[in-house]
Amino acid sequence: MVLTIDIGNTNITIGAFKGDELVFVSRLATDKKRMADQYACEIMNIFKLYSVEKDEFSGSILSSVVPEVTFPVGEAVRRLTGITSLIVGPGIKTGLNILIDDPSTLGADFVTGGVAAMKKYPLPCFVIDLGTASKIYVIDENGSFLGCTIAAGINVSMNALSSSASLLPNIGIKRAKSALGKNTIDCILSGTLVGTAAMIDGMVERFSEEIGRKPASIVATGGFARSVIANCKTEIEYDKYLLLEGLKIIYDKNVKSK
Fold first, then answer.
1. Distance CA 241, CA 22 (A)
2. Is 83 helix (H, G, I), strand (E, B) or coil?
3. Which helix (H) or strand (E) holds 16?
4. CA triple 215-229-138, angle to 5 deg
5. CA–CA separation, 57 vs 148, rounded Å?
6. Which residues contact 169 (CB under 8 A, 6 or more apart)?
7. 102 classed as catalytic
8. Maximum distance among all alpha carbons in the chain?
9. Which of 109, 129, 140, 239 is catalytic?
10. Is residue 86 over pLDDT 90?
11. What are phi and psi of 129, to 5 degrees?
């Protein structure tokens, strides 16, 4: 089996692939203060939860947007399994042509999502990743990453609003009833969920104008994807495990090519 780990700002998503089959998915909270042994204990407990033995793994790959957590998680995997994880970054084979000012600065989450989109969906493909940040990016028909937009995520926006405005409460995420709110909670949900959906609809239109053609596919992933795209006018496909699948594709490119 191959262990795939996506380290995000809020959560660490762990998946195990047996061939091309995703056997299990689990999540840990991202904690910059946690040491390698602590992560190792938590990952071992996940293995036990899903009745997987540590010696069943033949490889591991991880992507990270939190540099402080990359080493302890990678070291935790090494101590548990004896495997040194591949790390998504400059020098690793992806097949993705990165057409930005400095390709080495592109986040690993963009790379893994782009690689998966390139293999799974008709191109050009617009990828929408809605987590700690709200991100939209373009993979063209040649497998090139053309650029992206980044905005504050749903939770970041809600937390900033409640902490800055005394009369506005911190509320949970649920589906907005309408764009025109009739009470404080519905107004906040409209502003965040429907507002983000409207941004996505608008950016899809602007991206299409800038690249000179409409996308052949639009796919959304991330923790808030379902809540947001339910409010979009654009037709968008939901892909829960896009980044984990991208990690597995990158792993295969680098291991099978040796």
1. 9
2. coil
3. strand 11-18
4. 30
5. 35
6. 162, 184, 185, 188
7. no
8. 61
9. 109
10. yes
11. -120, 110
Confidence of residue 141 (pLDDT cuts 50, 70, 90): very high
Quote the tokens at residue 190: 């409209």
Spatial CA neighbour of 211 closest among 94, 99, 95, 96: 99
Please state, as a whole number, how many other Cβ atoms lie within 10 Å of the Cβ of residue 258: 4
Alpha carbon distance 123, 128 (integer Å) = 14
Q: Which residues of 117-131 are buried (b: 16+ CB within 10 A; e: fewer)?
A: bbebbebbbbbbbbb
3 state DSSP class of 53: coil
Assign 27 to helix, strand or coil: strand
Work out the average pLDDT over 140-160.
92
What does the buried/exposed string (b/e) look like for 53-73 if buried means 16 or more CB atoms within 10 Å of the residue's CB?
Answer: ebeebebbbbbbbeeebbebb
- Ordered domains of the chain (ranges, CATH): 2-87 (3.30.420.40), 97-245 (3.30.420.40)
pLDDT band of 258, cuts 50, 70, 90: low
Tallying the residues shown for the chain, one arrives at 258
Q: Confidence band (pLDDT; 50, 70, 90) for 184? A: confident
pTM: 0.92
Q: Which of 184, 198, 217, 98 is nearest to 148 (CA)?
A: 98
Mean pLDDT of 76-103: 95
Higher pLDDT, 168 or 42: 42
Rounded CA-CA distance 187/158 in Å is: 12
User: What's the pLDDT score for residue 190?
Assistant: 86
